[in-house]
Design goal:
Helix content: 40-55%
Mean pLDDT: 75
CATH superfamily: Glutaredoxin
Shape: globular
Low-confidence stretches: 1-20, 22-28, 119-131
Largest sheet: 4 strands, mixed
Number of domains: 1
CATH topology: Glutaredoxin
CATH architecture: 3-Layer(aba) Sandwich
Structural class: alpha+beta
Strand order of the largest sheet: 2-1-3-4
Distance between the termini: 21 Å
Strand content: 5-15%
CATH class: Alpha Beta
């Protein structure tokens, strides 16, 4: 059984690689990017930003849109829209900055590759740059 420190080190090692390397590290796993929302203007805007971010990162996957609010609630999210990476919430609420969306996609892919949760696994609660 790996210690928390070993998992965190693997995560940082993976996170410091470009997104294409993170996806390669995931071996046969794929990155799934999804926006969940009610269809409001903010939800559509986050979907547009996520599509643009995925293109800029050259992830090579389609960004899906879902209006299944119950699914987001099952993830523990109560603020919409939600950007989910591999079924885990990466961003919530109104977002207008593509840099934040790109970073959330990178963090979500890195967390999946390292097998750790993208937030809450660090003593700082995910507020530091290591996560």
């Amino acid at each position: 059984m790996e210690t928390f420190l070993n998992q965190a080190c693997k995560f940082r090692e993976c996170y410091n690689n470009p997104i294409t390397d993170q996806i390669r590290i995931m071996e046969n796993k794929t990155v799934k990017i999804e926006v969940i929302g009610s269809g409001c203007a903010n939800c559509r805007k986050l979907h547009e930003l996520a599509v643009a971010a995925a293109e800029e990162l050259k992830v090579g996957v389609k960004v899906e849109y879902s209006d299944d609010v119950q699914r987001a609630l099952a993830m523990g999210v109560v603020q919409f829209p939600v950007l989910a990476v591999n079924g885990r919430p990466a961003l919530t609420g109104s977002i207008s900055d593509i840099k934040k969306v790109k970073r959330a996609i990178e963090k979500g892919a890195a967390a999946s590759a390292a097998g750790v949760e993208p937030s809450g696994c660090c003593p700082c609660g995910g507020d530091c740059d290591c996560l």
